[in-house]
Amino acid sequence: MLDNMLDNYDKRTVGDLWRQLFNLDHLTQPTPFTSRFSNYLIVTISILIIILDALLVFLEDYIFVANIGALIGVIVTLLLTIVVMFCLSLQPKIPESQNFEVPWIPTVPFLSVFVNVYLMFKLTSQTWIRFGVWMAIGLSIYIFYGIRNSNERKKSLIKSLDSRLSVSSGSGVSNGYTNNNNNNVVTTVVPT
Question: Does the pTM exceed 0.90?
Answer without folding.
Answer: no
